[in-house]
Write a structure and sequence with these properties.
Blueprint: E1 2-4, E2 13-17, H1 25-41, E3 44-50, H2 55-58, H3 70-80, E4 84-88, H4 92-95, H5 99-110, E5 112-117, H6 131-141, E6 144-147, H7 160-168, H8 172-179, E7 183-190, H9 195-198, E8 204-208, E9 219-226, E10 232-240, E11 255-260, E12 271-281, H10 289-307
Parallel strand pairs: 1-4, 2-3, 2-5, 3-4, 5-6
Antiparallel strand pairs: 7-8, 7-12, 8-11, 9-10, 9-12, 10-11
Helix pairs in contact: 5-6, 7-8
Length: 308
């Protein structure tokens, strides 16, 4: 896998353009098709992606939480079979390019000879609507534009926005089916209030590596935690505002707290991976910390059963 961040025509390439957030089953299907077509054309299979979500430039208030950081996205794209990954910075200069200007830039600056147009995929400030329009532009520039077949496998129809909706409605299983793996976040373990330790449920407070990371629906989850030693361990995780112990004048910042079953390792200032497996219940306010402890015992029993 080669990461390309500036003009590079050292290879002739076949490519597809997209954000590829999550690198879900549909993205992997597209990359498989890219590789197949690359072989018959003697071209290098490449993907073209962006360093940030285009909406963060076009309509910042509407920019979605992301399923993967750029680093994780690149790793997953490479694992899916992309040999070259071209990273473009989405800025106003790129934003206002017409489809012709954009396609010409890909051809001249990145050696793109064939472009695979994904299902429902559009590009260019003028946003041509049909494959034939893109093909006509490509023919005039010297780029063959071909359609990608529609993904109809498990979890279809699949899109990053659909996966976000699954996660925001407390359905991590559906998100996992569409992704091809459980939804996960990476983050550093930071010190918190340590209340959990006083009631028998010590927690690791997880600070996601990226502020753009999408957090699933607030509530309790059965989860797996991969600790710094590389071992995947059963756990329960709470996402929310800790209403039982929050200040009465406000909810404060949302937190991610993980209780790892049967684990006593020291992991402060270490990175862990949190995989969300099953939504257990909404976040609730309890009359006392004793009532909270009783609920956590029920949650732990349910999570252990699910993960066993």
């Amino acid at each position: 896998m080669r990461i390309i961040t500036k003009s590079d025509t050292s290879r002739r390439r076949i490519a597809a353009v997209g954000m590829y957030d999550g690198v879900h089953a549909g993205h992997k299907f597209l990359i498989d098709y890219l590789r197949l077509e690359a072989g018959s054309r003697r071209l290098t299979p490449a993907v073209i992606t962006f360093s940030q979500h285009p909406l963060s430039v076009v309509r910042p208030l509407e920019a979605p939480g992301l399923l993967t950081s750029l680093e994780e996205r690149l790793r997953l794209l490479g694992a899916a079979g992309a040999e070259d990954i071209i990273i473009l910075t989405f800025n106003d200069k790129l934003r206002y390019k017409s489809a012709r200007e954009f396609l010409s830039m890909l051809h001249k600056s990145y050696g793109i000879d064939t472009l695979v147009l994904g299902f429902n995929n559009r590009f260019g400030h003028d946003r041509p609507q049909t494959l034939e329009e893109y093909r006509k532009i490509g023919d005039e520039i010297g780029v063959e534009v071909i359609p990608a077949p529609e993904y109809r496998g498990a979890g279809s129809p699949v899109s990053s926005s659909v996966i976000r909706k699954h996660l925001q409605s407390g359905q991590p299983e559906k998100a996992a089916e569409a992704l091809g793996h459980p939804y996960a976040i990476r983050g550093m373990v930071v010190k918190g209030q340590r209340l959990g330790r006083t009631i028998g449920f010590p927690t690791a407070n997880v600070n996601p590596n990226s502020k753009e990371t999408l957090l699933p629906k607030p509530g309790a989850y059965a989860a797996y935690i991969t600790t710094p030693d590389g071992i995947r361990r059963a756990a329960m995780v709470n996402i929310g505002f800790r209403p039982t112990v929050a200040e009465p004048d406000g909810r404060g910042e949302i937190s991610v707290e993980a209780h790892i079953f049967d684990y006593n390792g020291y992991i402060y200032d270490e990175e862990i991976l949190v995989e969300f497996m099953k939504y257990l219940r909404p976040e609730s306010r309890f009359a006392s910390t004793e009532k909270l402890r009783e609920q956590l015992e029920r949650d732990a029993a349910k999570a252990r059963k699910i993960l066993s």
